[in-house]
Write a structure and sequence with these properties.
alpha+beta; Butyryl-CoA Dehydrogenase, subunit A, domain 2; 3 domains; two-stranded antiparallel sheet; 9 strands; globular
Length: 372
């Protein structure tokens, strides 16, 4: 679907695809539905999850056809994530279809791919990745969870914090410390895990604490470099989601500035408001360009992905935070109320900034990649 020779111009097929995703989300994920699901026990709507798989095959978008997916690239995934970010889609789409799927795809383990990816692609399995511990850091040298060989398998001991969608996941990919460095392990018997919901600022993206005590697991054939590449790919996807949220914040602010009057005129006619919105538009377009470059790197120049993804995630985290704050401020008093959706975007911006590492973390990764 994508055209590597013209990476930053959408094809007609891509525009039609994005339009289909947007229409789907407008129908299935309006603000009232987001609020309802936010208050539900599991934090997602199973009927919408099934429709995403059955109607648009979104869960398997980047999974190759040989594993039951659609075989599209990161360019198409970025379009989907921009739309889900704009709609504040609650649930495990990013966690399962991006984070978990790519952890497996970037491994060298054909057995694990054939076993788990078809069910992730169909939506029958919800996967997640458990990396962070009490510190909340996404550094692979900060692991305390331990994996020990036991007979033909492995046993995991330790506690993972801030595991996205950890309460509802059917498959948990745990990154743990071994004698030969970090490794990745599959736990598909979630009854062997002790899980509890973790309090979160963003109610549209649930997290959990997962405790393991000699928990049986299967090792995935993945090197440290494989795990880091998978996290970089997911960071590029998360940056696309952040751009979608930032754009929706700007759209809300501009719409309100056109109808809110003070001193007999729309507040959007005041120079300070106009300049603020123009500055945000420029920042968001720059952020979108960073995402497009990262997606292009993932599809065409994978050796450039780690640096491109780090740059995109660091920049988009800050742009989304500024856009969400400006949206509240430009709405005035109503923007601070529970009834207005501005606070939901502000909370998503804050949580997404920490997921997969904050801006400083990614700047350090970028500095390491370019040799600074």
């Amino acid at each position: 679907m994508s055209d590597p020779g013209n990476a930053f111009t959408l094809t007609d097929e891509q525009r039609d695809f994005r339009s289909s995703v947007r229409s789907f989300l407008q129908h299935h994920c309006p603000e009232a539905e987001v609020r309802r699901v936010m208050d539900s026990a599991d934090g997602y709507e199973p009927t919408v999850w099934r429709a995403m798989a059955d109607q648009l095959n979104l869960q398997g978008l980047v999974i190759p056809e040989e594993y039951g997916g659609e075989g599209f690239g990161c360019a198409e995934l970025a379009l989907v994530l921009e739309e889900t970010g704009a709609a504040l889609l609650p649930g495990p789409y990013f966690t399962s279809a991006v984070l978990a799927a790519n952890a497996l795809l970037h491994s060298a383990d054909e057995v694990a791919k054939k076993r788990y990816l078809p069910d992730i692609a169909s939506g029958h399995t919800i996967g997640t990745v458990a990396v962070t511990e009490r510190s909340g850091r996404w550094d692979l040298d900060d692991l305390e969870t331990r994996a020990e060989p036991v007979g033909d398998g492995w046993a995991l001991s330790g506690t993972k914090h801030y595991v996205p969608d950890g309460m509802i996941a059917d498959l948990v990919l745990v990154v743990a410390r071994t004698d030969d460095g970090p490794g990745m392990f599959c736990v598909d018997d979630t009854q062997a895990l002790q899980r509890r919901a973790q309090s979160t600022l963003d109610q549209t993206r649930r997290q959990a604490v997962i405790q393991m005590t000699a928990t049986p697991a299967t090792r995935v054939s993945a090197s440290t470099a494989d795990i880091e590449r998978a996290l970089a790919y997911s960071a590029a996807g998360l940056a696309a989601e952040q751009v979608g949220g930032a754009q929706r914040c700007l759209d809300h602010a501009v719409s309100y500035a056109k109808v809110r009057h003070q001193f007999g005129r729309p507040i959007g006619s005041f120079q300070a408001i106009r300049h603020r919105c123009a500055d945000l538009m420029l920042e968001i377009e720059c952020a979108r360009g960073a995402v497009q470059y990262a997606a292009h790197a993932a599809d065409v120049h994978p050796e450039s992905l780690p640096a491109a993804a780090a740059m995109a995630k660091a920049h988009c985290s800050e742009v989304y935070a500024r856009a969400a704050a400006a949206n509240i401020q430009l709405h005035g008093g109503i923007g601070f109320t529970w009834e207005h959706p501005a606070h939901m975007y502000f909370k998503r911006a804050a949580s997404s900034a920490q997921l997969l590492g904050d801006a400083d973390h990614h700047r350090r990764l970028l500095a390491d990649r370019v040799g600074l």
